[in-house]
Design goal:
The structure holds two protein chains of two kinds. By secondary structure, chain A is an alpha/beta fold. Chain A is built from eight helices and nine strands. Chain A is elongated, with a radius of gyration of 22 Å. Chain B is built from 25 helices and 25 strands. The two termini of chain B are about 40 Å apart. The chains are: A alpha/beta, B alpha/beta. The complex binds flavin-adenine dinucleotide and iron/sulfur cluster (3 copies).
């Protein structure tokens, strides 16, 4: 799932300077699940922004709508009376924010969240990055543990000299991905895989302006 | 109800609505013969709102003081807390609500808006209950009672060591205060003829109970010294000079027999033998009656049938019993068998017959009311009607002997039948919805529930008890009652899903301490009401706003928040703030300038709630949280504190000042609460007015 974090309310408030009719749009999928952009957060941010305006003696009208996904045209089209607003704040990931910006070209669309990574829900409110969307998955060779995303240096052949009793040199509370890989492969009796050198990846596949056409 | 506008909804309609709207009820309510809203009145005591609790009790348990003492409380047997560490002491809480309010005024008369008159014959629990309901419904009700006071068997029969007579009088006075006309010392059939009232009143209810004790026609049964249970108990209750012989034998194994035996002890009998047909395990009296009687030195002799009473000079000298080998036959019919070879002779000065009661139909023979050869009124249990179109009957006279609360249940039905008959002209079967009890607590939920030991009702020592007719059971004091009431788990008032909003994110599943939420087949969350404790943690965390908690829904919470527009708004666990400064007060006492918002638990608190209060313009908001070891809900995160912190950050960013919202521990006493509020106010004075209101309450 895509993981995002709430933006500080001051930042959102600043983006909205000069507008007095604003629509806040929640997303019912990833950002709801990571507690950042669902109906509850939209409610909260709307209240917070309204309060800040009131304190300044200003009036602001904030509409609130939450749709199932902001990365699909059909769901975006469920939004109502969008034209009535001067600005939109989207609480979806970057894809969804841009979905709105592409659909409502004459209305400024602002991000309500910072999109962080593709992650795993460890437990309530705790998420970990797992995947860099590199376009060339090697998890078959690394015991199902991604060194691109989980090794601080993204090494394809590790560990480096900074490995420290299973932890990474950058921080004692971060696991060394290569030790995890070693242990996993050892458990599977496949340490021979560990000894094979991985060839450099084609980072072109992780380049910008990617499109995927499954129809071809 | 009791508002004077009760003709808008009748008592039965209100009850039916409550049942139908949410048919799933806690097992205590399901087990209660009148389906009382137990958790509501218990929770009001838990909050220190005693008068409101009493009024809630009375809606279904029309005689709170009396039933709070003598009800056999089947509710407690089913209480889900039995599986944790012991049932909530519901009966004692009910009694407490009545006792703490004894000096409170009763009600104001309900306007008689229906323009119809109802006569009730018999002022026992059944007649009184019907009078209560019908008066509430706006009818003009008159009770005709042959005794000098109402109460029926609980007034004349139940000994005063279990139920002091002033308590019965207090219960009766409450019902009279609704505008019920009570004519005591008035026997129908003697002072007033039945056919006359049947003609003069729009409807008549016969609720004359079972007021004659039966005798057993064995040799010697009419000798001097042979007494009958009810007259004996009446003497014991009302004649301060009543006496009894030193050696007494009581025949019978029901509750009445035990009342007789224990009263005889108190009147001075030194040797009291209670003999009954039933074997030990079949004795019909309640188990606690057996225990308390044994403690008082009464000898219980099971499996003996009376054979003959020994008489000398017309006076009782003893009684002979034969061994009873069975009471019921293969068809479960009462059909005792004896072994005459095995006999037991007991010397006695008095033999008291406590083998059952029958109706006294003398006032009704030869009237238009149909009574069969065995003295039973022709009666349809479904419509509660007799042979006459406007005459109904209820209570023990038609149902046979049972408990007081069963008579009360039957009377609620009778009142419903009469109300419908008088408003629609029809007399149809009264069918009341039956509650669906929620199931038992699953083991993993029991594990997670914080233990809170049960309080027993204090009893006078047996040696002291037998010396007088003083009440044997003491009530709870305020602190114990509140503690005990707080043990209730508010079963079945928990979380519910709004499916279209659920993102199946698992947040609820993860934050619930009791394992109640689960992702159901349709990939939306669902909640096991068996497990849910209604704490509300999940509702305030759900990112989709997909959860409602029946007991603490947002509409109700927001209403309470909006009551505060200046001063301080306080959010607290509904039990955190002691409110017992004015015990019987209806109002929720809070220091002036303080608006209280009571939550099931502060874990229900939503950041939005805090901001809403600030936006309403209050100077400050305080969150009172119970210390962790006092919290009824086990939780890994102090939710209220985390949410308070985020709200503080938001209002700080808005320039309102973080310190307007504060997180405090719960005060131990009303005085401590006042002090905390005083200190907070001083701090707020320094901060000046909330920029959103510009007016500071000093
Ligand atoms: C000794 C004893 C102990 C009991 N203990 C308990 C207990 O601990 N717990 C419990 O739940 N139940 C107990 N019961 C049962 C309980 O008292 C009855 O279930 C209940 O009183 C029945 O109510 P009722 O209104 O149908 O009849 P009653 O209570 O008998 O009331 C009938 C009323 O009608 C009046 N009446 C009769 N004829 C006429 C007439 N012709 N004109 C005018 N008035 C008339 C009578 O005086 C009486 O007041 C006990 C009963 C007895 C006798
Ligand atoms: S815990 Fe409360 S609501 Fe639940 S069964 Fe017991 S008394 Fe009733
Ligand atoms: S927390 Fe809310 S959205 Fe998430 S699974 Fe539970 S009910 Fe559904
Ligand atoms: S209200 Fe409390 S007990 Fe009920 S499901 Fe939610 S978190 Fe669990």
């Amino acid at each position: 799932m895509i993981v995002a974090e709430p933006k500080p309310v001051e930042e959102i408030k600043k983006m909205l300077d000069g507008y007095d009719k604003v629509l806040m749009v929640g997303c019912g999928t990833c950002t709801t699940v990571c507690l950042t952009g669902g109906e509850r957060e939209v409610d909260l941010m709307a209240t917070a922004v309204r309060l800040m305006h009131k304190v300044e003696g200003k009036d602001i009208q904030i509409g609130q709508q939450t749709i199932l996904r902001q990365c699909d045209w059909e769901y975006i089209d469920e939004l109502q009376n969008v034209e009535d607003y001067q600005a939109i704040v989207s609480f979806a990931c970057g894809a969804g924010i841009q979905g709105l910006a592409r659909r409502f070209t004459n209305i400024p669309v602002m991000p309500g969240v910072n999109t962080n990574f593709i992650g795993f829900n460890e437990e309530y409110g705790l998420y970990s990055e797992q995947c860099k969307a590199c376009g060339e998955c090697i998890l078959d060779k690394t015991g199902g543990i991604c060194p691109v995303a989980r090794c601080a240096k993204g090494l394809l052949n590790g560990p480096c000299g900074g490995t420290n009793n299973g932890k990474c040199e950058i921080s004692s509370d971060k696991d060394c991905a290569w030790v995890l890989i070693y242990n996993q492969l050892e458990g599977q009796g496949k340490l021979d895989q560990f000894k094979q050198i991985l060839a450099p990846k084609d980072y072109g596949k992780a380049g910008n302006i990617r499109m995927l056409d499954l129809r071809k | 109800m009791k508002s004077g506008v009760s003709n808008i909804t009748s008592q039965s309609e209100a009850f039916e609505k409550w049942m139908v709207e949410n048919p799933v009820k806690p097992p205590c309510t399901s087990a209660c013969p009148v389906n009382a809203d137990i958790q509501s009145f218990v929770s009001l005591v838990a909050q220190g709102r005693f008068r409101e609790s009493l009024d809630a009790v009375r809606e279904r348990c029309t005689l709170p003081g009396s039933l709070g003492r003598i009800c056999h409380h089947p509710c407690e047997g089913e209480c889900r807390r039995n599986d944790v560490e012991g049932a909530v002491n519901i009966r004692a809480i009910k009694r407490f609500a009545a006792d703490i309010c004894t000096d409170e005024p009763h009600y104001t008369p309900v306007p008689k808006t229906q323009g119809k008159r109802v006569a009730i014959v018999g002022g026992g629990p059944a007649g009184l209950t019907a009078a209560y309901d019908l008066a509430e419904d706006g009818f003009d009700v008159t009770i005709f009672e042959k005794n000098d006071a109402c109460g029926g068997a609980i007034y004349v029969g139940v000994p005063k060591y279990r139920l002091p007579k002033n308590i019965v009088a207090w219960d009766v006075a409450a019902i009279a205060s609704l505008g019920v006309d009570i004519k005591t010392n008035t026997t129908i059939g003697k002072d007033i003829q039945f056919d006359d009232i049947a003609k003069d009143y729009d409807a008549v209810l016969v609720a004359i109970g079972l007021s004659v004790s039966r005798n057993i026609p064995i040799p010697g049964h009419d000798a001097e010294g042979v007494l009958l249970a009810l007259p004996f108990l009446k003497e014991a209750n009302f004649n301060d000079n009543a006496t009894v012989g030193k050696r007494v034998v009581v025949i019978g194994g029901g509750n009445v027999a035990f009342d007789v035996a224990r009263s005889a002890r108190r009147l001075g009998a030194e040797e009291v033998n209670l003999c009954c047909l039933e074997c030990e395990s079949e004795i019909p009296a309640f188990s606690w009656e057996l225990e308390e009687a044994a403690e008082e030195g009464i000898k219980i002799n099971p499996s003996w049938g009376p054979k003959e009473i020994k008489v000398k000079d017309d006076k009782v000298t003893g009684i002979v019993f034969k061994r009873c080998t069975r009471v019921f036959d293969e068809n479960r019919m009462f059909n005792p068998a004896y072994d005459e070879c095995e006999l037991l002779e007991i010397d006695a000065d008095n033999v008291i017959m406590a083998i059952g009661q029958g109706a006294d139909m003398t006032g009704f023979t030869g009237t238009s009311l149909e009574v069969d050869g065995r003295g039973r009124i022709t009666w349809d249990p479904a419509t509660l009607k007799t042979n006459l179109p406007n005459v109904f009957a209820c209570g023990e006279v038609v149902t046979g002997p049972g408990s007081a609360v069963a008579a009360v249940r039957n009377a609620h039905h009778a009142a419903t039948a009469i109300e419908r008959f008088l408003t629609t002209g029809k007399a149809e079967a009264v069918v009341m919805p039956e509650p669906i009890p929620i199931g038992k607590l699953p083991d993993f939920t029991i594990e997670a529930i914080t233990r809170k030991e049960k309080n027993l009702v204090p009893m006078v020592e047996p040696a002291e008890r037998v010396k007088s007719f003083a009440e044997v059971e003491a009530g709870f004091d305020i602190q114990t009652a509140i503690y005990e009431a707080q043990r209730c788990m508010n079963c079945s008032r928990g979380a519910d899903i709004i499916p279209e909003k659920c993102a199946a994110c698992l947040t609820c599943v993860r934050v619930c301490p009791f394992g109640a939420p689960y992702i159901a087949e349709a990939r939306v969350a669902n909640f096991s009401w068996e497990s849910c404790q209604a704490c509300g943690i999940c509702a305030a965390e759900c990112p989709g706003n997909a959860i409602q908690v029946a007991f603490n829904d947002d509409t109700k919470i927001n209403e309470a928040i909006d009551a505060g527009t200046s001063g301080i708004t306080v959010f607290g666990c509904q039990y955190a703030v002691p409110t017992v400064k004015n015990p019987a007060s209806k109002a929720t006492p809070a220091p002036p300038g303080v608006n209280m918002v009571r939550l099931m638990c502060t874990s229900r608190l939503d950041i939005q709630h805090l901001l809403r209060a600030i936006e309403n313009g209050v100077d400050g908001v305080a969150v009172l949280a119970c210390p962790d070891d006092k919290c009824r809900y086990r939780k890994d995160i102090n939710w209220a504190e985390v949410r308070t912190e985020r709200a503080r950050r938001i209002i700080e960013a808005a320039g309102i000042g973080a310190d307007r919202i504060t997180f405090m521990g719960s005060p131990g006493s009303p005085e401590a609460f006042d002090e905390m509020m005083g200190e907070f106010k001083a701090k707020l004075n320094e901060l000046g007015a909330n920029p959103l209101s510009k007016v500071l309450v000093k």
